[in-house]
Amino acid sequence: MLTRYKKQDKVKTWGLALAKRSSHRKATVAVARKLAVIMHAMWTSGTFYCGDPDASVAERQAARTAKARKLLGVYA
Fold this sequence. Notes:
The protein is mostly helical. The protein contains 3 helices and no strands.
């Protein structure tokens, strides 16, 4: 996520700041752990992740609705 993901994301920004203070290896492990915690929380609560800090509430809701429809197989 730190090197290949090109879009803006809160976790990526946090990881890059950590890499500047520490080392890239430590930042990679920290980002992986943070993503694991986020994914576990999403799994247990059934929510969706939107890491774009510039996304509006309406955009987040539209993304959640589209993802829910796709997961349920509702395309109409």
